[in-house]
Amino acid sequence: MRAEPGRGSGVSRAKRDPELVSGAARAAADAPAGAGATLRVRSLTVAFDRGPVLDDVGFGIEPGEVVALVGANGAGKSTLMRALVGIGARSRGAVEVDGVDIGSASRAELRAVRRRTGMVFQRFCLAGRLTAFQNVLHGGMGRTGPRGWLAATASEAERREAMTCLARVGLAHLAGRRASLLSGGEAQRVSIARALMQRPTLLLADEPVASLDPSATRDVMEMLTGIAREQGVTAILALHQLDLARRYTTRVIGLQAGRLKIDSALTACLDSELDRLYGDGVAGAPSRGGPARATEAAA
Amino acid sequence: MEAAGLMTRTAAGRVSVPPPPPRVRRPGPFAYLLVAGVAAFVIHAYISGAAISPTTLVEGIGPFTAFIADAFPPDLARADAIGAALLETFEIALVGTIFGTILAIPLAVLAARNTTPNRLVYAGARGLIALMRTIPDIIWGLIFVVTVGLGAPAGVLAITVDVAGFSGRFFADSIEDVDKGLTDGLAATGARDGGIVVGAVVPSVTPAWTATTMFSLEQATRSSVVLGIVGAGGIGVELTTSMSLLRYDEAATIILAIFVVVLGVERLSSAVRSRIR
Protein backbone atom coordinates (compact mmCIF):
# COMPACT_ATOMS: atom_id res chain seq x y z
CA MET A 1 0.00 0.00 0.00
CA ARG A 2 2.94 2.33 -0.55
CA ALA A 3 2.23 5.39 -2.60
CA GLU A 4 4.46 6.04 -5.54
CA PRO A 5 5.03 9.74 -5.87
CA GLY A 6 5.40 9.64 -9.60
CA ARG A 7 6.61 12.82 -11.24
CA GLY A 8 3.78 15.14 -12.07
CA SER A 9 1.25 12.79 -10.56
CA GLY A 10 -0.55 15.57 -8.70
CA VAL A 11 -3.24 13.12 -7.80
CA SER A 12 -3.01 11.38 -4.48
CA ARG A 13 -2.77 7.68 -4.06
CA ALA A 14 -6.16 7.94 -2.41
CA LYS A 15 -7.53 9.32 -5.64
CA ARG A 16 -6.15 6.45 -7.68
CA ASP A 17 -6.77 3.53 -5.41
CA PRO A 18 -10.47 2.67 -5.05
CA GLU A 19 -9.86 1.18 -1.59
CA LEU A 20 -8.22 4.36 -0.40
CA VAL A 21 -10.76 6.57 -2.07
CA SER A 22 -13.44 4.90 -0.03
CA GLY A 23 -11.42 5.52 3.17
CA ALA A 24 -10.81 9.17 2.36
CA ALA A 25 -14.37 9.71 1.24
CA ARG A 26 -15.65 8.14 4.44
CA ALA A 27 -13.48 10.48 6.45
CA ALA A 28 -14.82 13.48 4.55
CA ALA A 29 -18.38 12.28 4.85
CA ASP A 30 -18.06 12.04 8.65
CA ALA A 31 -17.45 15.78 8.91
CA PRO A 32 -20.03 18.54 8.56
CA ALA A 33 -19.74 20.05 5.11
CA GLY A 34 -19.07 23.63 4.18
CA ALA A 35 -16.45 25.01 6.56
CA GLY A 36 -13.37 23.02 5.58
CA ALA A 37 -10.72 23.93 3.02
CA THR A 38 -9.75 21.84 0.02
CA LEU A 39 -6.06 21.11 -0.33
CA ARG A 40 -4.17 19.97 -3.40
CA VAL A 41 -0.44 19.29 -3.36
CA ARG A 42 1.19 18.47 -6.69
CA SER A 43 4.80 17.37 -7.24
CA LEU A 44 5.98 19.44 -4.29
CA THR A 45 9.76 19.56 -3.98
CA VAL A 46 11.55 21.61 -1.34
CA ALA A 47 15.33 21.68 -1.17
CA PHE A 48 17.77 23.18 1.28
CA ASP A 49 21.52 23.50 0.76
CA ARG A 50 22.10 19.90 1.77
CA GLY A 51 19.58 18.54 -0.72
CA PRO A 52 15.85 17.96 -1.14
CA VAL A 53 13.79 17.70 2.03
CA LEU A 54 10.58 17.01 0.13
CA ASP A 55 10.78 15.20 -3.16
CA ASP A 56 7.86 15.16 -5.59
CA VAL A 57 5.15 14.88 -2.97
CA GLY A 58 1.54 14.90 -4.11
CA PHE A 59 -1.82 14.34 -2.43
CA GLY A 60 -5.25 15.87 -2.06
CA ILE A 61 -7.38 16.49 1.02
CA GLU A 62 -11.11 17.07 0.94
CA PRO A 63 -13.00 19.52 3.18
CA GLY A 64 -13.47 18.25 6.71
CA GLU A 65 -10.90 15.47 6.58
CA VAL A 66 -8.72 14.96 9.66
CA VAL A 67 -5.42 13.56 8.44
CA ALA A 68 -2.38 12.32 10.33
CA LEU A 69 0.98 13.18 8.82
CA VAL A 70 3.57 10.71 10.07
CA GLY A 71 7.23 10.07 9.48
CA ALA A 72 10.53 9.85 11.32
CA ASN A 73 12.58 12.89 12.30
CA GLY A 74 13.85 14.59 9.17
CA ALA A 75 11.22 12.96 6.96
CA GLY A 76 9.96 16.41 5.91
CA LYS A 77 6.77 16.79 7.96
CA SER A 78 7.49 20.27 9.28
CA THR A 79 8.78 21.42 5.91
CA LEU A 80 5.57 20.19 4.31
CA MET A 81 3.43 21.94 6.92
CA ARG A 82 5.30 25.20 6.35
CA ALA A 83 5.10 24.85 2.59
CA LEU A 84 1.31 24.55 2.86
CA VAL A 85 1.18 28.15 4.12
CA GLY A 86 4.10 29.42 2.05
CA ILE A 87 6.59 29.76 4.90
CA GLY A 88 10.18 28.59 4.61
CA ALA A 89 12.38 27.57 1.73
CA ARG A 90 11.34 28.06 -1.89
CA SER A 91 9.57 25.12 -3.39
CA ARG A 92 8.77 23.63 -6.79
CA GLY A 93 5.46 22.07 -7.65
CA ALA A 94 2.09 23.37 -6.54
CA VAL A 95 0.19 23.78 -3.31
CA GLU A 96 -3.41 24.86 -3.72
CA VAL A 97 -5.65 25.82 -0.82
CA ASP A 98 -9.23 26.31 -1.94
CA GLY A 99 -7.96 26.80 -5.48
CA VAL A 100 -5.35 29.44 -4.57
CA ASP A 101 -1.86 28.43 -5.69
CA ILE A 102 0.40 29.34 -2.77
CA GLY A 103 3.49 29.58 -4.97
CA SER A 104 2.10 32.13 -7.41
CA ALA A 105 -0.29 33.94 -5.05
CA SER A 106 0.09 37.66 -4.48
CA ARG A 107 0.97 38.82 -0.97
CA ALA A 108 -2.67 39.72 -0.37
CA GLU A 109 -3.88 36.32 -1.61
CA LEU A 110 -1.27 34.55 0.50
CA ARG A 111 -2.32 36.53 3.57
CA ALA A 112 -5.95 35.63 2.84
CA VAL A 113 -5.08 31.91 2.79
CA ARG A 114 -2.98 32.20 5.96
CA ARG A 115 -5.78 34.12 7.66
CA ARG A 116 -8.00 31.04 7.34
CA THR A 117 -5.23 28.57 8.22
CA GLY A 118 -4.80 27.97 11.93
CA MET A 119 -1.33 26.71 12.67
CA VAL A 120 -0.36 25.04 15.93
CA PHE A 121 3.36 24.55 16.49
CA GLN A 122 5.26 22.07 18.62
CA ARG A 123 7.03 24.90 20.44
CA PHE A 124 3.78 26.92 20.75
CA CYS A 125 5.35 30.06 19.17
CA LEU A 126 3.68 32.38 21.68
CA ALA A 127 5.05 35.78 22.71
CA GLY A 128 6.25 34.85 26.20
CA ARG A 129 6.06 38.38 27.59
CA LEU A 130 2.46 38.87 26.50
CA THR A 131 -0.56 37.48 28.29
CA ALA A 132 -2.52 34.48 27.08
CA PHE A 133 -5.30 36.88 26.07
CA GLN A 134 -2.99 39.08 24.00
CA ASN A 135 -1.55 36.03 22.25
CA VAL A 136 -5.03 34.79 21.36
CA LEU A 137 -5.97 38.25 20.11
CA HIS A 138 -3.08 37.98 17.64
CA GLY A 139 -5.01 35.24 15.86
CA GLY A 140 -7.31 37.94 14.52
CA MET A 141 -4.46 40.07 13.13
CA GLY A 142 -4.99 38.83 9.61
CA ARG A 143 -8.45 40.37 9.37
CA THR A 144 -8.11 43.40 11.66
CA GLY A 145 -6.23 46.56 10.83
CA PRO A 146 -3.50 48.06 13.00
CA ARG A 147 -6.11 48.71 15.69
CA GLY A 148 -6.30 45.00 16.34
CA TRP A 149 -2.56 44.62 16.87
CA LEU A 150 -2.73 45.69 20.51
CA ALA A 151 -5.02 44.54 23.28
CA ALA A 152 -5.46 48.17 24.32
CA THR A 153 -6.84 49.28 20.96
CA ALA A 154 -8.61 46.13 19.71
CA SER A 155 -12.35 46.39 19.18
CA GLU A 156 -14.70 45.13 21.86
CA ALA A 157 -15.98 42.43 19.48
CA GLU A 158 -12.45 41.12 18.89
CA ARG A 159 -11.72 41.17 22.62
CA ARG A 160 -14.90 39.23 23.36
CA GLU A 161 -14.10 36.70 20.62
CA ALA A 162 -10.60 36.20 22.05
CA MET A 163 -12.09 35.49 25.48
CA THR A 164 -14.58 33.07 23.89
CA CYS A 165 -11.69 31.22 22.21
CA LEU A 166 -9.82 31.04 25.51
CA ALA A 167 -12.97 29.76 27.21
CA ARG A 168 -13.33 27.07 24.52
CA VAL A 169 -9.93 25.67 25.43
CA GLY A 170 -10.76 25.97 29.13
CA LEU A 171 -8.31 28.76 29.92
CA ALA A 172 -10.49 31.84 30.39
CA HIS A 173 -9.28 32.01 33.99
CA LEU A 174 -5.67 32.38 32.79
CA ALA A 175 -6.37 35.20 30.33
CA GLY A 176 -4.15 37.64 32.20
CA ARG A 177 -1.24 35.27 32.79
CA ARG A 178 2.00 35.73 30.89
CA ALA A 179 2.51 33.05 28.26
CA SER A 180 6.00 32.36 29.61
CA LEU A 181 4.44 31.30 32.94
CA LEU A 182 2.07 28.74 31.42
CA SER A 183 2.72 25.00 31.52
CA GLY A 184 3.37 23.20 28.24
CA GLY A 185 -0.20 21.92 28.04
CA GLU A 186 -1.66 25.35 28.83
CA ALA A 187 0.61 27.06 26.30
CA GLN A 188 -0.45 24.61 23.61
CA ARG A 189 -4.12 25.25 24.44
CA VAL A 190 -3.48 28.99 24.12
CA SER A 191 -1.95 28.41 20.70
CA ILE A 192 -5.06 26.39 19.77
CA ALA A 193 -7.20 29.29 20.97
CA ARG A 194 -5.13 31.63 18.78
CA ALA A 195 -5.78 29.32 15.83
CA LEU A 196 -9.51 29.34 16.69
CA MET A 197 -9.42 33.14 16.70
CA GLN A 198 -8.51 32.91 13.02
CA ARG A 199 -11.89 31.24 12.33
CA PRO A 200 -9.95 28.62 10.38
CA THR A 201 -11.04 26.44 7.51
CA LEU A 202 -7.74 24.60 7.59
CA LEU A 203 -5.95 23.54 10.77
CA LEU A 204 -2.29 22.52 10.64
CA ALA A 205 -0.74 21.13 13.81
CA ASP A 206 2.99 20.40 13.67
CA GLU A 207 3.78 17.81 16.32
CA PRO A 208 1.39 19.53 18.72
CA VAL A 209 1.89 17.00 21.52
CA ALA A 210 5.59 16.22 21.14
CA SER A 211 6.55 18.00 24.35
CA LEU A 212 3.46 17.23 26.42
CA ASP A 213 2.75 14.64 29.10
CA PRO A 214 0.11 11.94 28.45
CA SER A 215 -2.71 13.85 30.13
CA ALA A 216 -2.03 17.09 28.25
CA THR A 217 -1.53 15.06 25.07
CA ARG A 218 -5.03 13.61 25.41
CA ASP A 219 -6.54 17.04 26.13
CA VAL A 220 -4.83 18.69 23.17
CA MET A 221 -5.63 15.89 20.72
CA GLU A 222 -9.29 15.80 21.76
CA MET A 223 -9.46 19.56 21.51
CA LEU A 224 -7.92 19.72 18.04
CA THR A 225 -9.92 16.88 16.54
CA GLY A 226 -13.09 17.98 18.34
CA ILE A 227 -12.82 21.48 16.86
CA ALA A 228 -12.10 20.05 13.43
CA ARG A 229 -15.10 17.74 13.52
CA GLU A 230 -17.53 20.21 15.11
CA GLN A 231 -16.72 22.96 12.63
CA GLY A 232 -15.95 20.73 9.64
CA VAL A 233 -12.44 22.17 9.48
CA THR A 234 -9.90 20.32 7.37
CA ALA A 235 -7.03 19.31 9.64
CA ILE A 236 -3.56 17.87 9.24
CA LEU A 237 -1.84 16.70 12.40
CA ALA A 238 1.85 15.85 12.21
CA LEU A 239 2.41 13.10 14.75
CA HIS A 240 5.01 10.59 15.82
CA GLN A 241 2.66 8.57 17.99
CA LEU A 242 0.94 6.16 15.66
CA ASP A 243 -1.59 5.12 18.30
CA LEU A 244 -2.77 8.75 18.46
CA ALA A 245 -3.05 8.79 14.69
CA ARG A 246 -5.22 5.69 14.84
CA ARG A 247 -7.37 7.03 17.67
CA TYR A 248 -7.98 10.53 16.43
CA THR A 249 -7.68 10.57 12.63
CA THR A 250 -9.09 8.58 9.77
CA ARG A 251 -6.42 8.93 7.14
CA VAL A 252 -2.66 8.78 7.20
CA ILE A 253 -0.06 10.39 4.99
CA GLY A 254 3.38 8.94 5.58
CA LEU A 255 6.66 10.53 4.58
CA GLN A 256 10.04 8.90 4.53
CA ALA A 257 13.18 10.84 3.64
CA GLY A 258 11.04 13.49 1.93
CA ARG A 259 9.07 11.08 -0.22
CA LEU A 260 5.42 10.16 0.06
CA LYS A 261 5.27 6.52 1.10
CA ILE A 262 1.77 6.12 2.46
CA ASP A 263 -1.51 7.85 1.67
CA SER A 264 -4.47 5.84 2.75
CA ALA A 265 -7.37 5.50 5.13
CA LEU A 266 -6.03 4.29 8.47
CA THR A 267 -8.36 1.31 8.42
CA ALA A 268 -6.67 0.18 5.23
CA CYS A 269 -3.15 0.78 6.47
CA LEU A 270 -1.17 -2.11 7.87
CA ASP A 271 0.90 -1.78 11.04
CA SER A 272 3.91 -3.14 9.20
CA GLU A 273 3.70 -0.29 6.68
CA LEU A 274 3.67 2.31 9.41
CA ASP A 275 6.52 0.56 11.20
CA ARG A 276 8.57 0.56 8.01
CA LEU A 277 8.19 4.33 7.90
CA TYR A 278 10.25 4.55 11.06
CA GLY A 279 12.59 1.73 10.12
CA ASP A 280 14.81 1.36 7.07
CA GLY A 281 17.85 2.68 8.90
CA VAL A 282 16.22 5.72 10.43
CA ALA A 283 17.84 6.01 13.84
CA GLY A 284 15.85 6.87 16.93
CA ALA A 285 12.52 5.75 15.50
CA PRO A 286 9.86 5.73 18.21
CA SER A 287 7.88 2.66 18.88
CA ARG A 288 4.23 2.88 17.99
CA GLY A 289 2.60 4.96 20.63
CA GLY A 290 5.94 5.82 22.18
CA PRO A 291 6.49 9.36 23.44
CA ALA A 292 8.60 10.83 20.67
CA ARG A 293 10.09 14.11 21.80
CA ALA A 294 12.73 14.88 19.24
CA THR A 295 12.12 17.79 16.93
CA GLU A 296 12.21 17.40 13.24
CA ALA A 297 15.70 18.15 12.04
CA ALA A 298 14.46 19.32 8.68
CA ALA A 299 12.55 22.18 10.24
CA MET B 1 32.70 1.33 31.00
CA GLU B 2 35.38 -1.33 30.93
CA ALA B 3 39.13 -1.78 30.41
CA ALA B 4 40.20 1.57 31.88
CA GLY B 5 37.56 3.48 29.93
CA LEU B 6 38.81 2.39 26.54
CA MET B 7 35.92 0.10 25.67
CA THR B 8 32.21 0.18 26.39
CA ARG B 9 29.25 -2.02 25.63
CA THR B 10 26.37 -0.82 23.46
CA ALA B 11 23.41 -2.49 21.82
CA ALA B 12 25.66 -3.02 18.83
CA GLY B 13 28.36 -4.75 20.91
CA ARG B 14 31.67 -3.58 22.38
CA VAL B 15 32.97 -0.34 20.95
CA SER B 16 36.14 1.61 21.68
CA VAL B 17 35.82 4.97 23.46
CA PRO B 18 37.78 7.78 21.83
CA PRO B 19 39.84 10.06 24.13
CA PRO B 20 38.10 13.25 25.41
CA PRO B 21 38.67 16.47 23.46
CA PRO B 22 41.76 18.55 24.50
CA ARG B 23 41.29 20.83 27.54
CA VAL B 24 42.52 23.90 25.69
CA ARG B 25 42.22 24.39 21.96
CA ARG B 26 45.46 25.21 20.18
CA PRO B 27 45.37 28.90 19.08
CA GLY B 28 45.13 29.42 15.34
CA PRO B 29 47.29 31.73 13.14
CA PHE B 30 44.76 34.57 13.56
CA ALA B 31 45.18 34.53 17.37
CA TYR B 32 48.98 34.71 17.02
CA LEU B 33 48.65 37.56 14.51
CA LEU B 34 46.29 39.44 16.84
CA VAL B 35 48.66 39.14 19.82
CA ALA B 36 51.61 40.24 17.67
CA GLY B 37 49.65 43.25 16.39
CA VAL B 38 48.62 44.39 19.89
CA ALA B 39 52.22 43.97 21.15
CA ALA B 40 53.54 46.04 18.22
CA PHE B 41 51.16 48.95 19.01
CA VAL B 42 52.04 48.90 22.74
CA ILE B 43 55.79 48.92 22.00
CA HIS B 44 55.33 51.77 19.51
CA ALA B 45 53.28 53.72 22.08
CA TYR B 46 56.22 53.54 24.54
CA ILE B 47 58.76 54.52 21.87
CA SER B 48 56.67 57.49 20.70
CA GLY B 49 55.87 58.64 24.24
CA ALA B 50 52.11 57.96 24.07
CA ALA B 51 52.17 55.38 26.85
CA ILE B 52 52.30 56.11 30.57
CA SER B 53 55.74 55.59 32.04
CA PRO B 54 56.49 55.22 35.78
CA THR B 55 58.48 58.50 35.58
CA THR B 56 55.43 60.38 34.31
CA LEU B 57 53.35 58.98 37.17
CA VAL B 58 55.92 59.91 39.82
CA GLU B 59 56.33 63.44 38.40
CA GLY B 60 52.54 63.90 38.46
CA ILE B 61 52.16 63.16 42.18
CA GLY B 62 53.24 66.67 43.24
CA PRO B 63 50.87 68.69 41.01
CA PHE B 64 48.04 66.26 41.82
CA THR B 65 48.55 66.78 45.55
CA ALA B 66 48.56 70.56 45.01
CA PHE B 67 45.31 70.32 43.01
CA ILE B 68 43.63 68.29 45.78
CA ALA B 69 44.86 70.79 48.41
CA ASP B 70 43.38 73.71 46.42
CA ALA B 71 40.15 71.85 45.65
CA PHE B 72 39.19 71.04 49.23
CA PRO B 73 37.06 72.17 50.81
CA PRO B 74 34.82 72.69 47.74
CA ASP B 75 33.48 76.22 47.27
CA LEU B 76 29.67 76.26 47.39
CA ALA B 77 29.31 80.02 46.68
CA ARG B 78 27.99 79.39 43.15
CA ALA B 79 25.90 76.36 44.11
CA ASP B 80 22.74 77.86 42.51
CA ALA B 81 24.36 78.46 39.13
CA ILE B 82 26.06 75.05 39.25
CA GLY B 83 22.74 73.40 40.17
CA ALA B 84 20.99 75.07 37.22
CA ALA B 85 23.76 74.02 34.83
CA LEU B 86 23.64 70.49 36.20
CA LEU B 87 19.87 70.35 35.66
CA GLU B 88 20.38 71.52 32.08
CA THR B 89 23.05 68.82 31.60
CA PHE B 90 20.67 66.09 32.78
CA GLU B 91 17.85 67.47 30.63
CA ILE B 92 20.12 67.51 27.56
CA ALA B 93 20.92 63.85 28.25
CA LEU B 94 17.30 62.87 28.89
CA VAL B 95 15.74 64.71 25.92
CA GLY B 96 18.56 63.59 23.62
CA THR B 97 18.11 59.97 24.74
CA ILE B 98 14.34 60.12 24.16
CA PHE B 99 14.69 61.61 20.66
CA GLY B 100 17.58 59.26 19.83
CA THR B 101 15.61 56.21 20.95
CA ILE B 102 12.54 57.28 18.94
CA LEU B 103 14.79 57.69 15.88
CA ALA B 104 16.54 54.37 16.55
CA ILE B 105 13.37 52.24 16.50
CA PRO B 106 12.37 52.66 12.82
CA LEU B 107 16.05 52.63 11.83
CA ALA B 108 16.53 49.31 13.64
CA VAL B 109 13.47 47.75 11.98
CA LEU B 110 14.90 48.73 8.59
CA ALA B 111 18.40 47.59 9.59
CA ALA B 112 17.45 44.08 10.80
CA ARG B 113 17.64 41.30 8.22
CA ASN B 114 14.38 39.70 9.36
CA THR B 115 12.28 42.90 9.22
CA THR B 116 13.86 45.04 6.49
CA PRO B 117 11.81 45.36 3.29
CA ASN B 118 14.81 44.77 1.01
CA ARG B 119 18.61 44.61 0.87
CA LEU B 120 19.03 48.17 -0.38
CA VAL B 121 17.07 49.62 2.54
CA TYR B 122 19.00 47.30 4.88
CA ALA B 123 22.35 48.53 3.57
CA GLY B 124 21.22 52.18 3.74
CA ALA B 125 19.93 51.89 7.30
CA ARG B 126 23.03 50.02 8.50
CA GLY B 127 25.24 52.63 6.79
CA LEU B 128 23.40 55.52 8.45
CA ILE B 129 23.64 53.83 11.85
CA ALA B 130 27.36 53.22 11.34
CA LEU B 131 27.88 56.89 10.41
CA MET B 132 26.03 58.12 13.51
CA ARG B 133 27.76 55.63 15.79
CA THR B 134 31.35 55.89 14.62
CA ILE B 135 31.66 59.70 14.74
CA PRO B 136 32.28 60.59 18.42
CA ASP B 137 29.62 62.63 20.23
CA ILE B 138 32.01 65.54 20.83
CA ILE B 139 32.48 65.92 17.06
CA TRP B 140 28.70 65.90 16.58
CA GLY B 141 28.65 68.57 19.29
CA LEU B 142 31.13 70.72 17.35
CA ILE B 143 29.13 70.25 14.14
CA PHE B 144 25.84 71.25 15.80
CA VAL B 145 27.39 74.24 17.58
CA VAL B 146 28.38 75.46 14.11
CA THR B 147 24.93 74.72 12.64
CA VAL B 148 22.48 75.72 15.42
CA GLY B 149 24.74 77.86 17.59
CA LEU B 150 26.06 77.63 21.14
CA GLY B 151 23.86 76.19 23.86
CA ALA B 152 21.73 73.26 24.90
CA PRO B 153 20.00 72.60 21.50
CA ALA B 154 23.38 71.69 20.00
CA GLY B 155 23.94 69.28 22.91
CA VAL B 156 20.51 67.71 22.51
CA LEU B 157 21.12 67.16 18.78
CA ALA B 158 24.55 65.66 19.40
CA ILE B 159 23.17 63.24 22.01
CA THR B 160 20.21 62.39 19.75
CA VAL B 161 22.48 61.36 16.88
CA ASP B 162 24.86 59.50 19.18
CA VAL B 163 22.04 57.57 20.91
CA ALA B 164 20.30 56.81 17.60
CA GLY B 165 23.54 55.28 16.31
CA PHE B 166 24.28 53.31 19.48
CA SER B 167 20.72 52.13 20.12
CA GLY B 168 19.93 51.63 16.42
CA ARG B 169 22.73 49.09 16.12
CA PHE B 170 21.81 47.17 19.29
CA PHE B 171 18.06 47.36 18.61
CA ALA B 172 18.64 45.92 15.12
CA ASP B 173 20.84 43.14 16.48
CA SER B 174 18.21 42.20 19.06
CA ILE B 175 15.51 42.13 16.36
CA GLU B 176 17.68 39.71 14.39
CA ASP B 177 17.94 37.51 17.49
CA VAL B 178 14.14 37.16 17.81
CA ASP B 179 13.06 33.52 17.60
CA LYS B 180 12.06 32.88 14.00
CA GLY B 181 9.33 30.56 15.20
CA LEU B 182 7.64 33.51 16.86
CA THR B 183 7.56 35.65 13.72
CA ASP B 184 6.59 32.66 11.59
CA GLY B 185 3.79 31.94 14.06
CA LEU B 186 2.26 35.35 13.39
CA ALA B 187 3.05 35.31 9.67
CA ALA B 188 1.08 32.05 9.52
CA THR B 189 -2.01 33.87 10.83
CA GLY B 190 -1.93 36.21 7.84
CA ALA B 191 -0.69 39.15 9.90
CA ARG B 192 0.85 42.07 8.03
CA ASP B 193 4.53 42.95 8.49
CA GLY B 194 3.60 45.78 10.89
CA GLY B 195 1.49 43.39 12.94
CA ILE B 196 4.36 40.91 13.15
CA VAL B 197 6.69 43.66 14.40
CA VAL B 198 4.16 44.84 17.00
CA GLY B 199 2.92 41.39 18.02
CA ALA B 200 6.09 39.27 17.93
CA VAL B 201 9.20 41.42 17.66
CA VAL B 202 8.46 44.23 20.12
CA PRO B 203 7.42 41.96 23.03
CA SER B 204 10.55 39.86 22.53
CA VAL B 205 13.01 42.73 22.36
CA THR B 206 11.51 44.89 25.11
CA PRO B 207 14.00 43.78 27.83
CA ALA B 208 17.01 44.22 25.52
CA TRP B 209 15.75 47.58 24.23
CA THR B 210 15.09 48.82 27.76
CA ALA B 211 18.58 47.83 28.89
CA THR B 212 20.12 49.49 25.84
CA THR B 213 18.09 52.67 26.40
CA MET B 214 19.17 52.80 30.03
CA PHE B 215 22.83 52.36 29.05
CA SER B 216 22.29 55.13 26.48
CA LEU B 217 20.96 57.43 29.19
CA GLU B 218 23.99 56.70 31.39
CA GLN B 219 26.35 57.34 28.48
CA ALA B 220 24.41 60.45 27.44
CA THR B 221 24.66 61.89 30.96
CA ARG B 222 28.47 61.54 30.86
CA SER B 223 28.58 62.84 27.28
CA SER B 224 26.47 65.89 28.04
CA VAL B 225 29.05 66.98 30.64
CA VAL B 226 31.83 66.80 28.06
CA LEU B 227 29.69 68.44 25.34
CA GLY B 228 29.53 71.60 27.44
CA ILE B 229 33.28 71.99 26.94
CA VAL B 230 32.72 72.59 23.21
CA GLY B 231 29.86 74.99 23.92
CA ALA B 232 26.93 72.62 23.53
CA GLY B 233 25.30 73.64 26.83
CA GLY B 234 25.30 72.15 30.29
CA ILE B 235 27.77 72.09 33.14
CA GLY B 236 30.83 71.50 30.96
CA VAL B 237 31.10 75.25 30.36
CA GLU B 238 31.12 75.91 34.12
CA LEU B 239 33.79 73.26 34.67
CA THR B 240 36.03 74.58 31.87
CA THR B 241 35.71 78.14 33.22
CA SER B 242 36.56 77.13 36.80
CA MET B 243 39.57 75.09 35.68
CA SER B 244 40.80 77.91 33.39
CA LEU B 245 40.55 80.43 36.25
CA LEU B 246 42.38 77.98 38.57
CA ARG B 247 39.26 77.94 40.82
CA TYR B 248 39.87 74.31 41.78
CA ASP B 249 37.61 74.56 44.85
CA GLU B 250 34.73 75.59 42.58
CA ALA B 251 35.72 72.88 40.09
CA ALA B 252 35.62 70.36 42.96
CA THR B 253 31.99 71.31 43.67
CA ILE B 254 31.13 70.78 40.00
CA ILE B 255 32.98 67.44 39.82
CA LEU B 256 31.27 66.18 42.97
CA ALA B 257 27.88 67.31 41.65
CA ILE B 258 28.53 65.50 38.35
CA PHE B 259 29.55 62.40 40.31
CA VAL B 260 26.28 62.46 42.27
CA VAL B 261 24.11 62.92 39.14
CA VAL B 262 25.91 60.25 37.07
CA LEU B 263 25.78 57.81 39.98
CA GLY B 264 22.07 58.56 40.46
CA VAL B 265 21.35 57.91 36.77
CA GLU B 266 23.32 54.64 36.92
CA ARG B 267 21.36 53.50 39.98
CA LEU B 268 18.07 54.40 38.29
CA SER B 269 19.18 52.57 35.16
CA SER B 270 20.06 49.42 37.13
CA ALA B 271 16.73 49.53 38.96
CA VAL B 272 14.76 49.80 35.70
CA ARG B 273 16.79 47.04 34.02
CA SER B 274 16.32 44.66 36.92
CA ARG B 275 12.54 45.16 36.84
CA ILE B 276 12.04 44.64 33.11
CA ARG B 277 13.22 40.99 32.93
CATH topology call of the largest domain in chain B = MetI-like fold
Order of helices and strands of chain A: HHEEEHEEHEHHHEHEHEEH
CATH superfamily of the largest domain in chain A: P-loop containing nucleotide triphosphate hydrolases
**CATH architecture classification of the largest domain in chain B:** Orthogonal Bundle
Average pLDDT of chain A, to the nearest integer?
79
Strand-and-helix sequence of chain B, N→C?
EEHHHHHHHHHH
Structural class of chain B: mainly alpha
CATH class of the largest domain in chain A: Alpha Beta
Please count the beta strands of chain B (DSSP E, at least 2 residues each).
2
Averaged pLDDT of chain B: 89
CATH architecture identity of the largest domain in chain A: 3-Layer(aba) Sandwich
- Considering DSSP H and I runs of 4 or more, what fraction of the residues of chain A is helical? 25-40%
Cα radius of gyration of chain B in angstroms:
27 Å
Straight-line N-to-C gap of chain B: 44 Å
Please list the strands of the largest sheet of chain B in the order they lie side by side.
1-2
Rg over C-alpha atoms of chain A, rounded to the nearest angstrom:
18 Å
* Straight-line distance between termini of chain A: 27 Å
Assembly state here? Answer: heterodimer
Query: Which band does the percent of strand residues of chain B land in?
Result: under 5%
CATH class of the largest domain in chain B: Mainly Alpha
Question: What does this protein look like?
Answer:
The complex is a heterodimer of chains A (about 300) and B (about 280). Chain A has about 300 residues and is an alpha/beta fold. Chain A is built from ten helices and ten strands. Chain A folds into two domains: about 1-115 and about 200-285, P-loop containing nucleotide triphosphate hydrolases (Rossmann fold), CATH 3.40.50.300; about 130-200, no CATH class. In chain A, strands 6-7-8-3-9-10 form a six-stranded mixed β-sheet, sandwiched between helices. In chain A, strands 2-1-4-5 form a four-stranded antiparallel β-sheet. In chain A, helix 6 packs across helix 7 (about 185-195) and helix 7 (about 185-195) runs parallel beside helix 8 (about 215-230). The longest helix of chain A is centred in the last third of the chain and has 18 residues, at about 215-230. The two termini of chain A are about 25 Å apart. Mean pLDDT of chain A is about 80; it is low at about 1-35 and about 280-299. Chain B folds into two domains: about 25-60, no CATH class; about 80-275, MetI-like (MetI-like fold, Orthogonal Bundle). Chain B is about 75% helix and about 5% strand. Chain B has ten helices and two strands; from the N terminus they run E-E-H-H-H-H-H-H-H-H-H-H. Chain B has a two-stranded antiparallel sheet.
